[in-house]
Design brief:
The protein is of the alpha/beta class and about 375 residues long. The chain has helices at about 20-25, 65-80, 95-100, 120-125, 160-170, 200-215, 235-245, 260-270, 280-285, 300-310, 345-360; strands at about 50-55, 80-85, 110-115, 135, 150-155, 180, 180-185, 190-195, 220-225, 250-255, 270-275, 290-295, 320-325, 330-335. Helix 5 packs antiparallel against helix 11 (about 345-360). The chain is elongated.
Protein backbone atom coordinates (compact mmCIF):
# COMPACT_ATOMS: atom_id res chain seq x y z
CA UNK A 1 0.00 0.00 0.00
CA UNK A 2 1.37 3.38 -0.95
CA UNK A 3 2.25 5.54 2.06
CA UNK A 4 0.37 8.77 2.63
CA UNK A 5 3.00 11.48 3.02
CA UNK A 6 2.16 14.60 4.96
CA UNK A 7 3.94 17.64 6.33
CA UNK A 8 3.29 18.31 10.00
CA UNK A 9 3.53 22.06 9.74
CA UNK A 10 1.33 24.90 8.59
CA UNK A 11 1.90 27.54 5.95
CA UNK A 12 3.24 27.40 2.42
CA UNK A 13 4.16 23.98 1.06
CA UNK A 14 7.55 23.15 -0.40
CA UNK A 15 8.08 24.04 -4.04
CA UNK A 16 10.66 22.22 -6.13
CA UNK A 17 12.35 24.69 -8.43
CA UNK A 18 14.97 24.81 -11.15
CA UNK A 19 17.73 22.23 -11.30
CA UNK A 20 16.98 20.97 -7.82
CA UNK A 21 13.54 19.82 -8.89
CA UNK A 22 15.09 17.93 -11.78
CA UNK A 23 17.50 16.22 -9.41
CA UNK A 24 15.05 15.35 -6.67
CA UNK A 25 11.60 15.17 -8.08
CA UNK A 26 11.97 13.35 -11.38
CA UNK A 27 10.66 9.90 -12.16
CA UNK A 28 12.39 6.81 -10.78
CA UNK A 29 15.67 6.13 -12.47
CA UNK A 30 16.66 9.77 -13.08
CA UNK A 31 19.39 9.49 -10.45
CA UNK A 32 22.27 7.03 -10.68
CA UNK A 33 20.77 3.61 -10.37
CA UNK A 34 21.93 0.17 -9.41
CA UNK A 35 18.89 -1.55 -10.89
CA UNK A 36 15.93 -1.23 -13.19
CA UNK A 37 13.32 1.49 -12.89
CA UNK A 38 10.52 0.98 -10.43
CA UNK A 39 7.90 2.83 -8.49
CA UNK A 40 8.44 1.79 -4.89
CA UNK A 41 7.99 -1.35 -2.82
CA UNK A 42 4.45 -0.19 -2.08
CA UNK A 43 3.51 -0.29 -5.79
CA UNK A 44 2.40 -3.28 -7.79
CA UNK A 45 5.89 -3.68 -9.23
CA UNK A 46 7.30 -4.39 -5.79
CA UNK A 47 10.48 -2.53 -6.68
CA UNK A 48 12.25 -0.14 -4.32
CA UNK A 49 12.78 3.60 -4.61
CA UNK A 50 15.74 4.73 -2.53
CA UNK A 51 17.21 8.19 -2.06
CA UNK A 52 20.55 9.21 -0.61
CA UNK A 53 21.98 12.63 0.27
CA UNK A 54 25.77 12.71 0.48
CA UNK A 55 27.79 14.16 3.32
CA UNK A 56 30.93 16.30 2.92
CA UNK A 57 33.19 14.96 0.22
CA UNK A 58 30.31 13.96 -2.03
CA UNK A 59 29.91 10.94 -4.22
CA UNK A 60 33.08 9.84 -5.92
CA UNK A 61 35.09 10.15 -2.70
CA UNK A 62 36.02 6.46 -2.99
CA UNK A 63 35.31 6.20 0.73
CA UNK A 64 32.46 7.21 3.04
CA UNK A 65 29.73 8.34 0.64
CA UNK A 66 30.51 5.75 -2.01
CA UNK A 67 30.38 2.94 0.56
CA UNK A 68 26.91 4.04 1.71
CA UNK A 69 25.72 4.19 -1.89
CA UNK A 70 27.15 0.75 -2.61
CA UNK A 71 24.75 -0.89 -0.15
CA UNK A 72 21.72 0.80 -1.73
CA UNK A 73 22.84 -0.27 -5.20
CA UNK A 74 23.13 -3.82 -3.91
CA UNK A 75 19.55 -3.63 -2.63
CA UNK A 76 18.07 -2.51 -5.94
CA UNK A 77 20.16 -5.05 -7.83
CA UNK A 78 18.57 -7.72 -5.64
CA UNK A 79 15.03 -6.38 -5.32
CA UNK A 80 14.70 -4.09 -8.34
CA UNK A 81 14.16 -0.34 -8.33
CA UNK A 82 16.37 2.73 -8.45
CA UNK A 83 18.60 4.96 -6.34
CA UNK A 84 18.43 8.75 -6.59
CA UNK A 85 21.73 10.18 -5.36
CA UNK A 86 21.87 13.85 -4.34
CA UNK A 87 25.05 15.77 -3.63
CA UNK A 88 24.62 17.46 -0.25
CA UNK A 89 26.17 20.60 1.18
CA UNK A 90 26.09 22.09 4.66
CA UNK A 91 23.65 24.94 4.14
CA UNK A 92 21.16 22.88 2.16
CA UNK A 93 20.62 19.66 4.12
CA UNK A 94 17.26 20.63 5.58
CA UNK A 95 15.80 21.71 2.24
CA UNK A 96 17.27 18.72 0.36
CA UNK A 97 15.77 16.31 2.86
CA UNK A 98 12.35 17.95 2.75
CA UNK A 99 12.34 18.14 -1.03
CA UNK A 100 13.06 14.44 -1.31
CA UNK A 101 10.26 13.71 1.17
CA UNK A 102 7.87 15.94 -0.81
CA UNK A 103 8.93 14.74 -4.27
CA UNK A 104 6.53 12.96 -6.61
CA UNK A 105 8.60 9.81 -6.16
CA UNK A 106 7.50 7.94 -3.04
CA UNK A 107 10.82 6.95 -1.44
CA UNK A 108 10.92 3.78 0.61
CA UNK A 109 14.04 5.08 2.37
CA UNK A 110 16.06 8.29 2.36
CA UNK A 111 19.63 7.90 3.59
CA UNK A 112 21.37 10.93 5.11
CA UNK A 113 25.13 10.40 5.11
CA UNK A 114 26.94 11.91 8.08
CA UNK A 115 26.26 13.51 11.43
CA UNK A 116 26.22 16.91 9.74
CA UNK A 117 22.67 16.15 8.65
CA UNK A 118 21.38 15.37 12.13
CA UNK A 119 20.01 18.82 13.06
CA UNK A 120 18.16 19.09 9.77
CA UNK A 121 16.78 15.58 10.12
CA UNK A 122 15.39 16.30 13.59
CA UNK A 123 13.01 18.71 11.90
CA UNK A 124 12.23 16.59 8.89
CA UNK A 125 11.77 13.33 10.79
CA UNK A 126 9.01 15.11 12.73
CA UNK A 127 7.58 16.88 9.69
CA UNK A 128 7.40 13.69 7.64
CA UNK A 129 6.53 10.91 10.10
CA UNK A 130 5.46 8.53 7.31
CA UNK A 131 8.87 8.76 5.64
CA UNK A 132 11.53 6.26 6.69
CA UNK A 133 15.01 7.73 7.10
CA UNK A 134 18.50 6.40 7.80
CA UNK A 135 21.11 8.61 9.45
CA UNK A 136 24.72 7.47 9.24
CA UNK A 137 27.09 8.05 12.15
CA UNK A 138 24.60 9.36 14.66
CA UNK A 139 21.44 8.28 16.42
CA UNK A 140 18.51 10.66 16.47
CA UNK A 141 16.56 11.40 19.62
CA UNK A 142 13.66 13.62 20.62
CA UNK A 143 13.85 16.15 23.44
CA UNK A 144 12.39 13.57 25.85
CA UNK A 145 15.13 11.08 25.00
CA UNK A 146 13.00 8.78 22.85
CA UNK A 147 14.33 7.87 19.44
CA UNK A 148 12.44 8.88 16.33
CA UNK A 149 10.48 5.76 15.31
CA UNK A 150 10.94 6.54 11.60
CA UNK A 151 14.75 6.89 11.78
CA UNK A 152 17.39 4.17 11.71
CA UNK A 153 20.52 5.69 13.23
CA UNK A 154 23.60 3.62 12.45
CA UNK A 155 26.96 4.48 14.02
CA UNK A 156 30.17 2.70 13.12
CA UNK A 157 32.94 2.52 15.71
CA UNK A 158 35.34 4.92 14.01
CA UNK A 159 37.42 5.07 17.18
CA UNK A 160 37.97 1.30 17.22
CA UNK A 161 39.13 1.07 13.62
CA UNK A 162 41.35 4.13 14.13
CA UNK A 163 42.90 2.46 17.17
CA UNK A 164 43.83 -0.47 14.92
CA UNK A 165 45.28 1.95 12.36
CA UNK A 166 47.46 3.34 15.15
CA UNK A 167 48.61 -0.14 16.12
CA UNK A 168 49.58 -0.86 12.52
CA UNK A 169 51.39 2.45 12.03
CA UNK A 170 53.15 2.32 15.39
CA UNK A 171 54.38 -1.18 14.71
CA UNK A 172 55.51 -0.60 11.13
CA UNK A 173 57.37 2.67 11.66
CA UNK A 174 60.06 1.07 13.81
CA UNK A 175 60.71 -1.78 11.37
CA UNK A 176 62.08 -2.14 7.88
CA UNK A 177 59.40 -1.74 5.25
CA UNK A 178 59.85 -1.12 1.55
CA UNK A 179 57.85 -1.43 -1.64
CA UNK A 180 59.06 -0.21 -5.02
CA UNK A 181 60.80 3.10 -4.27
CA UNK A 182 58.98 3.66 -0.97
CA UNK A 183 60.52 2.87 2.40
CA UNK A 184 60.49 3.53 6.13
CA UNK A 185 63.28 5.03 8.18
CA UNK A 186 63.06 2.94 11.40
CA UNK A 187 65.45 5.28 13.20
CA UNK A 188 62.95 8.17 13.23
CA UNK A 189 59.91 6.26 14.64
CA UNK A 190 57.48 8.97 13.52
CA UNK A 191 53.96 8.76 12.05
CA UNK A 192 51.28 11.30 11.17
CA UNK A 193 47.55 11.98 11.21
CA UNK A 194 45.64 14.32 8.89
CA UNK A 195 42.02 15.14 9.67
CA UNK A 196 39.54 16.89 7.43
CA UNK A 197 37.55 19.36 9.54
CA UNK A 198 38.38 19.58 13.25
CA UNK A 199 35.20 18.27 14.90
CA UNK A 200 34.13 15.96 17.71
CA UNK A 201 33.81 13.02 15.32
CA UNK A 202 37.21 13.44 13.67
CA UNK A 203 38.92 14.04 17.02
CA UNK A 204 37.81 10.50 17.92
CA UNK A 205 39.74 9.21 14.90
CA UNK A 206 42.78 11.21 16.00
CA UNK A 207 42.86 10.33 19.69
CA UNK A 208 42.13 6.64 19.18
CA UNK A 209 44.90 6.51 16.56
CA UNK A 210 47.34 8.10 19.00
CA UNK A 211 46.45 5.54 21.67
CA UNK A 212 46.88 2.68 19.22
CA UNK A 213 50.35 3.93 18.38
CA UNK A 214 51.18 4.31 22.05
CA UNK A 215 50.01 0.76 22.80
CA UNK A 216 52.77 -0.76 20.69
CA UNK A 217 55.54 1.81 21.21
CA UNK A 218 55.33 4.81 23.52
CA UNK A 219 58.46 6.29 21.92
CA UNK A 220 56.82 6.82 18.52
CA UNK A 221 56.15 10.49 17.78
CA UNK A 222 52.83 11.39 16.14
CA UNK A 223 52.43 14.51 14.00
CA UNK A 224 48.84 15.83 13.89
CA UNK A 225 47.30 18.29 11.45
CA UNK A 226 43.94 19.29 9.94
CA UNK A 227 43.29 20.29 6.34
CA UNK A 228 40.15 22.29 7.21
CA UNK A 229 38.09 20.55 4.51
CA UNK A 230 36.72 17.20 3.43
CA UNK A 231 36.92 18.20 -0.24
CA UNK A 232 40.37 19.72 -0.77
CA UNK A 233 43.11 17.22 -1.73
CA UNK A 234 45.64 20.03 -2.20
CA UNK A 235 45.18 21.19 1.40
CA UNK A 236 45.56 17.63 2.65
CA UNK A 237 48.65 17.18 0.56
CA UNK A 238 50.33 20.23 2.09
CA UNK A 239 49.66 19.04 5.64
CA UNK A 240 50.94 15.55 4.84
CA UNK A 241 54.05 16.85 3.07
CA UNK A 242 54.98 18.81 6.18
CA UNK A 243 54.62 15.67 8.29
CA UNK A 244 56.71 13.56 5.92
CA UNK A 245 59.34 16.30 5.88
CA UNK A 246 59.39 16.14 9.69
CA UNK A 247 60.18 12.43 9.60
CA UNK A 248 56.82 10.67 9.34
CA UNK A 249 56.99 7.24 7.71
CA UNK A 250 53.23 6.64 7.60
CA UNK A 251 50.32 9.11 7.66
CA UNK A 252 46.73 8.09 8.45
CA UNK A 253 43.96 10.32 7.14
CA UNK A 254 40.35 10.86 8.24
CA UNK A 255 39.55 13.40 5.58
CA UNK A 256 37.09 11.89 3.05
CA UNK A 257 37.56 13.61 -0.34
CA UNK A 258 40.68 15.38 0.92
CA UNK A 259 42.36 11.99 1.39
CA UNK A 260 43.88 11.56 -2.09
CA UNK A 261 46.13 14.52 -1.31
CA UNK A 262 47.71 12.53 1.51
CA UNK A 263 48.43 9.66 -0.90
CA UNK A 264 49.92 12.09 -3.43
CA UNK A 265 52.25 13.42 -0.73
CA UNK A 266 53.30 9.88 0.20
CA UNK A 267 54.20 9.15 -3.42
CA UNK A 268 56.20 12.37 -3.72
CA UNK A 269 58.17 11.62 -0.55
CA UNK A 270 58.48 7.85 -1.15
CA UNK A 271 56.72 7.09 2.12
CA UNK A 272 53.49 5.36 3.11
CA UNK A 273 49.90 6.16 4.14
CA UNK A 274 46.79 4.58 5.65
CA UNK A 275 43.37 4.94 4.04
CA UNK A 276 39.98 5.26 5.67
CA UNK A 277 36.38 4.01 5.40
CA UNK A 278 36.95 1.76 2.35
CA UNK A 279 39.92 -0.36 1.28
CA UNK A 280 41.46 2.55 -0.60
CA UNK A 281 44.23 0.43 -2.08
CA UNK A 282 41.37 -1.00 -4.19
CA UNK A 283 39.08 2.01 -4.55
CA UNK A 284 42.03 4.28 -5.45
CA UNK A 285 44.39 1.82 -7.16
CA UNK A 286 46.75 4.48 -8.52
CA UNK A 287 47.88 5.03 -4.92
CA UNK A 288 48.08 1.35 -3.97
CA UNK A 289 51.89 1.46 -4.02
CA UNK A 290 51.89 3.67 -0.87
CA UNK A 291 48.80 2.43 1.01
CA UNK A 292 49.92 0.23 3.90
CA UNK A 293 46.30 -0.57 4.68
CA UNK A 294 42.95 1.05 5.43
CA UNK A 295 40.75 1.47 8.48
CA UNK A 296 37.45 0.31 7.01
CA UNK A 297 33.83 0.39 8.10
CA UNK A 298 31.28 -1.61 6.21
CA UNK A 299 28.74 1.13 5.58
CA UNK A 300 27.44 -0.76 2.58
CA UNK A 301 26.33 -3.64 4.79
CA UNK A 302 24.40 -1.18 6.96
CA UNK A 303 22.56 0.59 4.13
CA UNK A 304 21.75 -2.76 2.53
CA UNK A 305 20.49 -4.17 5.85
CA UNK A 306 18.13 -1.24 6.43
CA UNK A 307 16.85 -1.41 2.84
CA UNK A 308 16.23 -5.14 3.17
CA UNK A 309 14.37 -4.61 6.46
CA UNK A 310 11.97 -2.27 4.68
CA UNK A 311 11.55 -4.80 1.89
CA UNK A 312 10.77 -7.51 4.46
CA UNK A 313 8.47 -5.26 6.47
CA UNK A 314 10.72 -5.56 9.54
CA UNK A 315 11.46 -1.87 10.20
CA UNK A 316 11.34 -2.37 13.97
CA UNK A 317 14.54 -4.42 13.70
CA UNK A 318 16.52 -1.46 12.36
CA UNK A 319 14.87 1.67 13.77
CA UNK A 320 16.55 3.45 16.67
CA UNK A 321 20.28 3.76 17.33
CA UNK A 322 22.71 0.96 16.50
CA UNK A 323 26.46 0.97 17.21
CA UNK A 324 28.56 -1.44 15.17
CA UNK A 325 32.19 -2.16 15.96
CA UNK A 326 34.92 -4.78 15.97
CA UNK A 327 32.80 -7.29 17.88
CA UNK A 328 30.18 -7.16 15.10
CA UNK A 329 32.85 -7.40 12.37
CA UNK A 330 31.62 -3.99 11.21
CA UNK A 331 35.02 -2.22 11.30
CA UNK A 332 38.52 -3.52 10.66
CA UNK A 333 42.05 -2.77 9.52
CA UNK A 334 42.60 -4.21 6.05
CA UNK A 335 46.18 -4.50 4.65
CA UNK A 336 46.75 -2.87 1.27
CA UNK A 337 46.81 -5.10 -1.80
CA UNK A 338 50.38 -4.17 -2.76
CA UNK A 339 52.10 -3.08 0.45
CA UNK A 340 50.17 -5.38 2.80
CA UNK A 341 52.12 -8.52 1.92
CA UNK A 342 55.36 -6.65 2.69
CA UNK A 343 54.32 -5.69 6.24
CA UNK A 344 56.39 -7.16 9.09
CA UNK A 345 54.69 -10.12 10.79
CA UNK A 346 54.61 -8.10 14.03
CA UNK A 347 51.92 -5.88 12.49
CA UNK A 348 49.35 -8.67 12.21
CA UNK A 349 50.38 -10.07 15.60
CA UNK A 350 49.83 -6.72 17.30
CA UNK A 351 46.59 -6.11 15.40
CA UNK A 352 45.15 -9.45 16.50
CA UNK A 353 46.14 -8.77 20.10
CA UNK A 354 44.47 -5.37 19.96
CA UNK A 355 41.31 -6.72 18.31
CA UNK A 356 40.93 -9.38 20.97
CA UNK A 357 41.67 -6.92 23.75
CA UNK A 358 38.90 -4.59 22.56
CA UNK A 359 36.37 -7.43 22.28
CA UNK A 360 37.30 -8.81 25.71
CA UNK A 361 37.16 -5.37 27.33
CA UNK A 362 40.83 -5.40 28.28
CA UNK A 363 41.48 -2.35 26.09
CA UNK A 364 39.51 0.84 26.54
CA UNK A 365 39.57 2.83 23.33
CA UNK A 366 39.38 6.60 23.98
CA UNK A 367 36.31 8.56 22.89
CA UNK A 368 33.16 6.90 21.56
CA UNK A 369 31.67 6.04 18.21
CA UNK A 370 29.90 9.43 18.35
CA UNK A 371 33.11 11.40 18.79
CA UNK A 372 35.38 13.21 21.26
CA UNK A 373 34.73 16.54 22.89
Amino acid sequence: MKRRRFLRTTGTGIVLTGGVAGCLGGPPGTGDSGGSDGSGSGDESGEMNLGIISGPGGFGDKAYNDMALKGLNRAVEEFGGSVNQVQGSGGEYESLQSQLAEASTDYDLIVCVGFYQADALKKNASNYPDQKWMLINQGLFKENGDHFPNVAGYVWANHEMSYLAGVAAGTATSRELSHDDNSNDPSTKTVGFVGGVDSALIRAFERAYLKGVERVDSEVEVKVGYAGSFQDPSAGKEVALSQYDEGADIVYHAAAGTGPGIFQAAQERDRFAIGVDADQSKSLPKYSDVIVGSAVKYLDVGTYTVSKAIRNDSWSDVSGRHVLGIEQDAVAFVPGVDVGPKLPSAVEENLESARQGIVDGDITVPCTAAGCQ
